[in-house]
Amino acid sequence: MDKLLQPVNRxxxxxxxxxxxxxxxxxxxxxxxxxxxxxxxxxxxxPQYPDGLRLDIYSHTLVGGxxxxxxxxxxxxxxxxxxxxxxxxxxxxxxxxxxxxxxLGLLMLRAAVHGSVAALVDVTMLFVYFxxxxxxxxxxxxxxxxxxxxxxxxxxxxxxxxxxxxxxxIANFEVYSYPRLGTYAMAAVVVLLVSALxxxxxxxxxxxxxxxxx
Amino acid sequence: MTRFIRSAWAGVAAVxxxxxxxxxxxxSQPASRRTxxxxxxxxxxxxxxxxxxxxxxDEYYMFSSGGHSGQIYVYGIPxxxxxxxxxxxxxxxxxxxxxxxxxxxxxxxxxxxxxxxPALSETKGDYDGRWLFINEMNGRLARIDxxxxxxRQILGPVPNLHGNHASSFVxxxxxxxxxxxxxxxxxxxxxIGIDKYATDYKGIIAGVKIDPQSGNMSLAWQILMPPFDYDxxxxxxxxSDGWMFFTSYNSERATGKLEVTASQRDRDYIAAVDWRAAExxxxxxxxxxxxxxxxxxxxxxxxxxxxxxxxxxPHGVDVSPDGKWIIGSGKLQxxxxxxxxxxxxxxxRNKDFTGDEDGIxxxxxxxxxxxxxxxxxxxxxxxxxxDGWAYTSLFVDSAIAKWKLGTWEVVDKAPMSYSIxxxxxxxxxxxxxxxxxxxxxxxxxxxxxxSVGPSQPESSQLLDISEEKMKLLYxxxxxxxxxxxxxxxxxxxxxxxxxxxxxxxxxxxVWDVKDAGVARNGKKVTVKxxxxxxxxxPSSFEVSAGDEVTVAITNIEQTTDExxxxxxxxxxxxxxxxPGETKTVTFTAKKSGVFAYxxxxxxxxxxxxxxxxMIVK
Lengths: 214, 617
Prior knowledge:
A: alpha+beta; B: mainly beta; seven-stranded mixed sheet; five-stranded mixed sheet
């Protein structure tokens, strides 16, 4: 068993090359994008709303289009079907997401400087887990909003799942839901992290190095 | 047999003669219609030029005075679609105007006004799209804010001046709007017999100062004038900036049957007012206070006003775009007169006078006139296009004459249906007229529309003036009764569509349903209501009979076109509150019982549910 794990241990404790370090730096820098650009956008068109109602989801807040007015309008409309108000207070994500992104960024910088494969693997795994969890959480929130409808609502609609990705017709609304720059930046971070790992692995296969400190 | 042939021939001859005579009978239509001449139009071209496809926007706004309806009608040009009615001097339940505390106060005791001459605010002689002023016969002047198309101020009735017809013409940088008397009265106002009309009755010309930032109007000065009927006016511009021109009739100073007695003289006057001199005289402390207003008497303060003879009973006076010519139209003549501003100045310098009227010098007609343009019968008003083109309305001829400034040559005539009064060309009274379109504001429509009984609408006809010949494009039918109208390029007007929450400083505004409710202070009850789709909060409130109730409603919507109404049955209360607006209505709860209030302005699928009750115990 030990023998079996030996090459893994050796690889994990080995250093990472300059290219991988640079990729880590770029990945950390890309995370800054998520603070300034939305992660996701929901746009709703209806005959009465030819200009659309727009909702941008950031890592830390919800922002309505038309100077914030669109989110109020969405809430006014949603109250007819008994949907809960979309307000920042309902999203615990907005409290921990920016913090976690920052922490992961610091771990990337740490891996870039410290330079062990193990650190790179750690931060990659954590980041992928974080991304996956965030997507699940987003989908779950949408599910809850579409299903927790007040029984006293004026207009009774069957519970529904709003679109997470793509287009869906909901009553008189065409709803479009697509990722925005923030999410693309996070996807790019994943690509960079995995590439750094792959590059390190291939590099190691070609010319195995001695474990650090050996 | 011969006899038979002869009588047969005679019979044939008689029939031929009759047939020949029959071709000479009275035609069924006037010549203009039979020949198809004049302002008739290629139908396909006219349709194309006026068709604004669904969802597309018009090129121009036209602000048309509503005459004795007391309102302003807004049209889109070239579609001639009626876009909105702006209530000014008359309550208008459709927008709740004249029902809430603020507009009720603004209207005062008068619920009627006769609005005549809209005047868009100007910067350097060009429309700037900020405000619209309009006069009214009961001595008032109103300002409409073009940010929200709402009447924001009504000045007056001002003292001394009666029948404010020659108004509201603004100066090139909106320094002043003007007012002038149509019905001379004793100044100060007191009952004096009509036999003293010529000596004891007076006309007034008044300058109303406009605050350049807020647009707030204040009465600055008045000039005491002879008892003529002051009719129309226009501000000098560019070359003639600093001067105002007013036509007048009844220089006979007659009373009684004016249509005869006031039409005896061959010439009446255009009053030329040096308004900068008037401003200066007031600044120097000149003038007498009459009924609280500084009034300049031209006898004591010379150099402020001169009289230009103009034939006969002149109606319109219009200054050319470069300010060089003043066009005065004697309505009982066949010519319109072009006065030369430079010559007027020279005549003033040389004291080229033929006499005076109550101390006001009368300039020598021959010295100041450039041309008498034979435009046609009954010339009233002149508008301008680019390249020196002028368009004069002819009431009696029922036509528009197109002629050229400088060469004075009349090149085209377009018949109008029927009896045109004012006319309005696109930015046609500014320093840079657009041409393109002209609207004839006709007094009679004579059934060019589906019959609606004896009370007929007026007709407003759109003409294409982009080419050499004027072409009739469209007949629109307008409610009584447009006088003057102005046409402004649409992109000059910047409107808002909701009142931003941050701007609402109303002391009774509530933006959260938690803050809504009833507060009592003795017999005074204040009800703060929130209106938002589709609920009034509170949905009921109680007061006691005899309470003075103030209901303040805030429409907390910030979405365009989400208006809410507040109709309170049996109490004659009807408000409409725009998004972001707070309006109040104060009344005494005289009747006890239960009274429903509800949203009158359709707001949502659950609009019918937006209701509540006032319980008066």
